[in-house]
Amino acid sequence: xxxxxxxxxxxxxxxxxxxxxxxxxxxxxxxxxxxxxxxxxxxxxxxxxxxxxxxxxxxxxxxxxxxxxxxxxxxxxxxxxxxxxxxxxxxxxxxxxxxxxxxxxxxxxxxxxxxxxxxxxxxxxxxxxxxxxxxxxxxxxxxxxxxxxxxxxxxxxxxxxxxxxxxxxxxxxxxxxxxxxxxxxxxxxxxxxxxxxxxxxxxxxxxxxxxxxxxxxxxxxxxxxxxxxxxxxxxxxxxxxxxxxxxxxxxxxxxxxxxxxxxxxxxxxxxxxxxxxxxxxxxxxxxxxxxxxxxxxxxxxxxxxxxxxxxxxxxxxxxxxxxxxxxxxxxxxxxxxxxxxxxxxxxxxxxxxxxxxxxxxxxxxxxx
Length: 368
Ligand SMILES: Cc1cc2nc3c(=O)[nH]c(=O)nc-3n(C[C@H](O)[C@H](O)[C@H](O)COP(=O)(O)OP(=O)(O)OC[C@H]3O[C@@H](n4cnc5c(N)ncnc54)[C@H](O)[C@@H]3O)c2cc1C
What we know:
The chain is α+β, with helices and mostly antiparallel strands. Helix content is 23%, strand content 32%.
């Protein structure tokens, strides 16, 4: 039976980073991916991902986020490719709302710089506040996954794509992992299965759900107003829900999407991967109401999926039933920016059972 120090199940955003980290530490490691490498049926596709620092979702993310920035720059150097573009981030919302108050609190607690800003071309209603953080921008999502996988293989990892894992079980001191074509043995198992964690980690007692999301690109009537030197990434907490967007960086135009706001599904089987004009409606309404610069036709639409925990925070932990299994799941629509530090933490947990990074708030047993 082929035997490894570690096997990584799922080689998307988090798994590619874990594979790289284990390989660079000299572990004999295998990555198993059900689809081709860098595909568009998981959660890590769609051209770009926002990265920020003053984290409104929870200030405890900031220390690991700082580490993630370091690791993205390092990955750029190793890959010889630009993966991260700093534009800053404009956050707009009710002064006492979750977003702007959360950004300010995170910045206060961690001594992060925020600046006053000109919100144009956004409309800022009475009672709303806006704040600009320079340490923010976007990541080229597929290039990041590709870079982690390439570096992993260069460092000695084995990667087998289009080989879905059917199940895994404890076996003596180690684990047995079964796919359709092979059975493997490993000392440590890393499960980074994205939306399929709803199945592979069903015994984890973390109530995970899956949410379909649509990313849309619009052709601006005045493209110069959406250039990345003038138009940063943005988050907008509106009465219609939360929206975010990125500058125009190619012919598709400006990317805008709603964050959450769709039904929670029990697993990825129910996700409809086809888009329709109905997907455009909430985003078009938001643009009409909140952005003064006109946008024209929608040039592209793409479906993606969130895997959500009840408190919308990640789960990164050892498996409660088996200390040789480490898991990272439930990234709740905001995980990609953390991928390299998640890879580092997973490798720490697999190697020694502990990590120096403060992730206690992401324990699996908090839902027990
Ligand atoms: C529309 C959208 C916008 C987002 N915007 C942002 C953003 O701006 N900033 C940000 O930080 N985050 C953002 N996110 C969230 C972020 O992209 C995700 O949190 C992150 O990509 C999750 O990575 P993952 O590795 O958990 O999942 P994935 O990348 O989906 O990887 C899981 C992998 O496991 C594989 N797999 C599953 N089961 C098996 C099996 N049985 N055998 C083999 N392989 C298997 C899958 O095929 C997949 O490749 C966004 C997400 C979406 C959908």
